[in-house]
Amino acid sequence: MTSRALRAVAVGVAAWCGALPAVAQEDTLAAEAPGPAARASTSEELDALVTQIASKLRCPECRAQSVAESSSRISRAMREDIRERLEAGQTPEEIVQFFLDSYGDFILLQPRARGLNLLVYLLPAAGFLVALGIGLAKMRSRRRDLGAPDGRPGDPVDQMDADDRAWLDAAIRGGS
Amino acid sequence: MRAAHLRWVLPLAVLPLLALLSWGLTRSPATLPSTLVGRPAPDFELPSLRDDTDSLGLADYRGGVVVLNYWASWCVPCIAEHAELVRLSESYPSSPVQLVGVLFQDERENGRRFMSRMGGEWPIVTDEGSRTSIRYGVYGVPETFFIGADGVVAYRQVGPVTWPLIVSKVDSLLAAGRLLPSEPVDPLETSYRPETAPPANR
Question: Which residues of B touch A63 (CB under 8 A)?
Answer without folding.
Answer: 29
